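Endoglucanase, pasting as requested.
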Amino acid sequence: MASNTLFSVLSMLLLLFLRPSSAAHDYRDALRKSILFFEGQRSGRLPADQRLRWRRDSALHDGATAGVDLSGGYYDAGDNIKFGFPMAFTTTMLSWSVIDFEKSMGAELGNALKAVRWGTDYLLKATAKIGSGVVFVQVGDPYSDHNCWERPEDMDTLRTVFKIDGSHPGSDVAGETAAALAAASIVFRSRDPSYSTMLLNRAVAVFQFADSHRGAYSNSLRRAVCPFYCDVNGYQDELLWAAAWLHKASRRRQYREYIVRNEVVLRAGDTINEFGWDNKHAGINVLISKEVLMGRANYFSSFKQNADQFICSTLPGISHPQVQYSPGGLIFKAGGSNMQHVTSLSFLLLAYSNYLSHANKVVPCGETTATPALLKHLAKRQVDYILGDNPLGMSYMVGYGPRYPRRIHHRASSLPSVAVHPARIGCKAGSRYFFSPNPNPNVLVGAVVGGPTNNTDSFPDSRPFFQQSEPTTYINAPLVGLLAFFSGHY
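Structure tokens follow.
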């Protein structure tokens, strides 16, 4: 009887979360906008085909104080710092989105490739001195930057360059950088073979550096990266993540052996369903499991077991302290910027559902079964919530739908553009725009904000509430793959 009751409860919960959307969504439009967002985050000299015209060139002399060219790359969020750790993860996830879902991208594939390359061009600059054992991992002093509210085109805050080396290791950020370069080498393998080879060779060198000089970059650069992107999870997962991508990109035996030798890093437990810029556990398991499901790599079977546990832990109704759902059906995890968890975990659900489909497999989860169709529906439910199927009836993607956040925590969006206000706006002069109740004058199309950070589905459309109202590149990057798939299949 208890077993039947549990089954009934699970069935009802799954039906609740799989209920049809209240309205059909234009996933193709959302995909276009999700990629367009990255043009609003560009640093450096903007290209002639820049579509968000209210942005202009910025930070053209980044790296000059260290005698290197570090212009380009992405601002990670609503500030003007270039943090290498989240930028590399963003590039990895954009690459994975293309690798798995490019056939569904249609006319947006070209823009997705440009978004990847804007990231890798910068990462190549940041690792150009890897032969000397140096990787540049950040440009800009966060305390100086966060003390001002000014446009990137105006900024006069400290553009301090931070690096890791043999004496000051950063295996986490270097490992993620190696993963990004390796993943992107797959993206460009047939499109630009020489560029792809350059990316892969650099990934190999950066990984060797990360593995040879072990340590967390937050120990080496604590004031610069904490509490902003402080690595609280350790660097071992980034080394394994990099090895997994290098194995996928190169098929070299040494990386397979490295993965098998270090798989103990991924102990099942509290981290089984963690995935983001700081924690790669669930991502590693899903990525490697594809080969197991294809019958090519039984020596990776433990990764598939972990991936199956991850899947089961995310099902609504399965009690797991690390993954909860709001009354409106949104994945909820403790901490700020909750949408980063929503998009990253949903990406893994969708990717794994495709791997299961091709292998004609399912995942047994106690009294229920996680089929590929179920996982796709769960991922789609999260995407639909973001696009407006939620208790507030608002889209959390700026510029999508009739109602969306208008006062996002983003300097360039909230201050008058250079075209409208050519005169410089100083450090503190921007404060009146920060505290203004008016909507942002520049629409950062496609930006997905942090969203609700509690389980009541509430959202304050207000700049000071940065955990809810700030967009980030690593929220959008996994969403690109999700929207591509749904635009091609729904």
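Note for the archive: Residues 56-265 form a domain with the Glycosyltransferase fold (CATH 1.50.10.10).
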